[in-house]
Design brief:
The protein has 258 residues and is of the alpha+beta class. The protein is 21% helix and 32% strand. It has four helices and 14 strands. The chain has helices spanning 2-21, 42-45, 51-65, 108-121; strands at 27-32, 71-76, 80-82, 94-96, 104-106, 125-129, 150-158, 165-173, 179-184, 193-201, 211-212, 228-235, 241-246, 250-257. It has a six-stranded antiparallel β-sheet with strand order 6-7-8-14-10-12, covered by helices on one side. Helix 3 (51-65) runs parallel beside helix 4. It is globular.
């Protein structure tokens, strides 16, 4: 539910601040993720450091992308934690067993964040993708009745002086059922292409856990702690859309290369 409300909160905050201070403001968001494990939010504490926590984090990023003209900077609380130290001891993306240790550990948040970060860093442009598809099933919550199940962004990269390129859709399915989804690939080069979908399967029943950080040379998807599935399709040059099934409560990275 936090993933759903993130979009609404940032949208309403942006609208309010523009009304108060004018259209040409910049918003810097400091330390989101604070309070995730407070006693008043037990439903978040139960999924802390796992895949659902990762969806919560990526939803913040996508909500900012949809308001990128106004939201310029976001600070995550906190990137690093040290085992046994009270401050940020269990809220970071990466954990050290001690300040002197050479061993680092990751959780479900950092596993998902690392993949999204790698796509963004290797892309030249990014933009929010609006979906008009199936609505979320919380019809008894009035302010959430018109939200769709999917939240997404698209990233492009092209090699200079060649026709090689890549288009990547990253999509959160925030509904409790799988969805058949069509991706628009009309903006890619009209040649035979290959589409690869990586789906990270998140669950409220799986508590967050820490695992050794993979070697930087290990390709995505990293094998743990959040389980993932990979599927591939050949996409003919004449094809304008590609269909994939997105599992319930999942982060999906669909990459098209040419």
């Amino acid at each position: 539910m936090a993933s759903y409300t993130t979009y609404l909160i940032l949208k309403n905050i942006t609208k309010y601040l523009k009304a108060e201070f004018g259209e040409n403001i910049e918003i810097w968001i400091s330390e989101y993720n604070v309070g995730l494990k407070s006693s008043s939010t037990s439903y978040l504490r139960e999924v802390a450091n796992g895949g659902m926590h990762g969806l919560f984090t990526i939803s913040h990023i996508f909500s900012a992308i949809s308001n990128e003209a106004t939201i310029k900077v976001m600070f995550y609380h906190a990137l690093l934690s040290v085992n046994g130290t009270a401050w940020d001891s269990n809220s970071g993306m990466v954990r050290l067993s001690s300040l002197q240790s050479q061993s680092a550990y990751i959780n479900g948040v950092s596993q998902l964040f690392a993949h999204v970060n790698a796509v963004a860093r290797n892309s030249s442009t990014m933009s929010s993708v609006e979906h008009s598809g199936e609505k979320i099933p919380f019809t008894d919550v009035p302010f959430m009745a018109n939200l769709t199940c999917l939240q997404a962004a698209v990233f492009f990269s092209e090699s200079r002086g060649s026709n090689d390129g890549q288009m990547t859709y990253i999509v959160i399915n925030r509904c409790p059922k799988s969805l058949e989804t069509s991706f628009d690939v009309n903006h890619s080069v009209a040649v035979d292409r290959q589409a690869i979908l990586v789906s990270y399967i998140c669950s409220t029943d799986e508590p967050g856990r820490w695992v050794p950080m993979p070697n930087p040379e290990v390709p995505f998807p990293w094998p743990e702690p959040v389980p993932s599935e990979t599927s591939k399709q050949s996409v003919a040059a004449s094809k304008k859309h590609v269909q994939f099934n997105l599992p319930m409560f999942s982060l999906n990275v669909m990459t098209l290369t040419w």
